[in-house]
Write a structure and sequence with these properties.
alpha/beta, 34% helix, seven-stranded mixed beta sheet
């Protein structure tokens, strides 16, 4: 629970189940809590059908837990409505990569970033948000690789770059198209690879033709000379890595953004070779693995298409069940279905959508409309506070056996170091207890037994026994046999001279520019973009209880020019308002910000609820919201408001 002895945002471990009675949560026995959870799920399905149920699985839990969560959803509840925070961050990366190559994983290993000639980091600050990966970047730089950083902010990562391209928020596609056009006009396109491994080049050539260097400079704010330099450097490099993160994927047209970057790799042949590839950087320890395990609405374990009858037949035979022959609802669609009265029951494992989804008040209102909400977590989060039943779970990274899969597709074995605190239980044990109450008497398998079941159903994991994972300190998928290992990079087939070996060519993505939905005007003249800082993590549930010499709390980062024009001083509390709400937040003046651009994080929602400002405009393909582009205004506040903000959690207000 939230501790009264700790500052706001600090949490204590849950060690007793809770059930709602007379509008309040009270402690309960495990039997009572499980009985109530199961009864609520059963009532929703019996009355409204299986698609009235939804599951949000956990990107911080093991592969084994995610496999069991999606199995529970499909076998016990009979629906494909399962998703996770993959939808919040990198679902567009999966969609874009799958559209081009047939699989949704990054194409290279981290080691290849150390052994390349050019690194492009686009829409991300890995020095803060992906610090382990950035160590590989620095090794590559120290070995002679050139580093280009494309980002609206002059980030700490950009401080290491040979060149920083500071583009306007939401203009990634015009910039990518201009780079592509320059490569084509300079005669630097890889004609051999285009002919062998791709389709749609002529349509792509026509698409990018209007985006001259001058036109791109006018739209993106990046000097034409810098665009030309990046285009020539990328095209002429022997090996190049193109990396991106949430600055590309958290937009209303995010899948198109991803496709625009993939186009550059197809144009130059920077994919399917050692040292050349595409790297979407995952922000949570198992967001890749959760999707790989089938905890998404359109794929079964091993990234197998749920619309394929032969794929479904294998799982149906193994599970003695019938799987719905259509896609389930994404996280975004589940929340919309709450408004429409279609989704009645939700099972949330380790996610906190009240503080991670855009438009906080809308998310809260939707969750309150449910007939039954069960939250399984290690803390009493804001989402858990709304639940009908709260189930105390294990911390997977240290209290469970299992595996995790990182951004380079590497599956790594973890061993239980601690028992959960008395009163908390392992996630898989809880799932099995609920399944039994719902008519599916599953025995409680070990993590290794769950993994072996997954391996029997997923060809890309088949060769990864626990023994091998331990001996080799992790294995990248695909791994089809216990006798072999595949190359560290994907899609080498596209280079083959044999058409049959090449298989399906990679299509160029024909995508157009679509500016941010939340338009700037005289009332809302500043562009707010969001992200992470090094010292904290996401909504702060797991990090706020620990001290950090780097932590400064939430701030509104603003340029010296804008601060001077508004008459703002360092640390001064201001009101930041969007068309959806407003918050009070101290100012931090920094040259990292360009004029007209401001920055905030989601790390301190109990003090400053940034999500009140963001917009619920979502990508139609992936369902990811446009966290990176809100229109806001900034106003000075009176002494009374400043005093209140300094003495207590910063007040938040809903827009009228």
């Amino acid at each position: 629970m939230r501790s009264k002895d700790h500052p706001p945002g600090s949490y204590e471990r849950l060690t007793r189940p809770l059930v709602r009675e007379n509008g309040e949560l009270r402690p309960a026995s495990w039997d009572e809590a499980l009985d109530r959870a199961a009864a609520g799920f059963s009532a929703a399905v019996d009355t409204h059908g299986p698609n009235a149920f939804g599951m949000l699985s956990c990107a911080r839990a093991t592969n084994e837990m995610n496999f069991m969560a999606q199995k529970f959803t499909r076998v016990v509840m009979g629906t494909n409505n399962v998703d996770s925070c993959n939808r919040t961050c990198h679902a567009p990366s999966v969609a874009g990569l799958a559209a081009a190559f047939g699989s949704g994983g990054g194409t290279s290993s981290y080691a290849e970033v150390e052994d390349t000639d050019l690194i492009v980091v686009w829409g991300g600050n890995p020095r803060f948000a992906h610090p382990i990966f950035f160590q590989h970047v620095l090794k590559g730089v120290h070995r002679g690789a050139r580093l280009f950083v494309v980002d609206p902010r002059r980030t700490s990562s950009a401080q290491w770059a040979d060149r920083w391209l500071g583009l306007n928020v939401g203009t990634d596609i015009p910039l990518a198209h201009a780079i592509g056009r320059e490569i084509i006009h300079a005669g630097l396109a890889n004609d051999t690879f285009i002919r062998r491994g791709t389709t749609g080049f002529e349509e792509y050539r026509e698409l990018v033709e209007p985006w001259t260097l001058a036109a791109a400079e006018a739209e993106t704010g990046v000097p034409a000379e810098a665009i030309r330099e990046l285009a020539h450097a990328y095209a002429t490099a022997e090996r190049a890595q193109l990396c991106w993160t949430l600055g590309i994927t958290e937009h209303h047209n995010a899948t198109d953004n991803v496709k625009a970057l993939i186009n550059l790799s197809l144009l130059t042949g920077h994919v399917g070779r050692h040292g050349s590839g595409l790297q979407p950087l995952r922000g949570q320890n198992n967001v890749q693995g959760g999707g790989d395990m089938g905890a998404i609405p359109d794929r079964l374990a091993g990234f197998q298409d749920i619309l394929d009858p032969q794929v479904r037949a294998r799982f149906e035979a193994a599970w003695d069940t019938t799987i719905q022959p259509h896609k389930g609802k994404t996280l975004t669609q589940m929340f919309e279905a709450m408004d429409e009265g279609e989704l009645k029951a939700l099972y949330v494992i380790g996610e906190n959508p009240v503080q991670s989804e855009p438009e906080t008040h809308t998310t809260t209102r939707r969750l309150k409309r449910l007939d039954h909400l069960v939250v399984q977590d290690i803390f009493l989060t804001r989402t858990a506070e709304l639940a009908d039943v709260v189930l105390p779970a294990s911390a997977s990274w240290c209290e469970s056996d299992g595996t995790f899969t990182n951004s380079e597709r590497r599956v790594q074995l973890v061993r239980k170091a601690l028992d959960p605190p008395p009163g908390a239980r392992d996630d898989i044990e809880i799932l099995c207890d609920l399944a039994e109450r719902l008519g599916h008497p599953w025995r409680r398998p070990s993590a290794e037994e769950v993994w072996d079941e997954l391996r029997s159903l997923s060809p890309i994991h088949r060769g990864m026994s626990y023994r091998r994972l331990e001996e080799l300190h992790g294995i990248q998928w695909p791994c089809y046999s216990e006798d072999t290992l595949e190359p560290s990079y994907l899609h080498a087939r596209l280079w083959s001279e044999d058409p049959e070996e090449r298989g399906r060519p990679a299509p160029f993505g024909i995508v157009g520019h679509s500016p941010p939905v939340d338009l700037l005007d005289d009332d809302y003249p500043f562009r707010l973009t969001t992200g992470r800082r090094l010292d904290d993590y996401n909504t702060g549930v797991q990090t706020s209880g620990f001290s950090s010499p780097l932590r400064r709390g939430e701030t509104l980062d603003i340029s010296p020019e804008d601060a001077g024009r508004l008459g703002l001083a360092e640390g001064e509390v201001v009101r930041v308002s969007s068309r959806r709400g407003s918050v009070l937040v101290p100012v931090a003046i920094t040259p990292a910000m360009r004029e007209g651009l401001v920055f905030m994080t989601f790390h301190f929602p109990d003090q400053v609820d940034t999500q009140l400002l963001t917009i619920d405009a979502t990508d139609p393909i992936a369902g990811t919201a446009e966290y990176k582009a809100a229109a806001v205004r900034i106003e000075k506040v009176g002494d009374a408001e400043r005093s209140a903000a300094g003495a207590a959690p910063v007040a938040v207000h809903a827009a009228p």
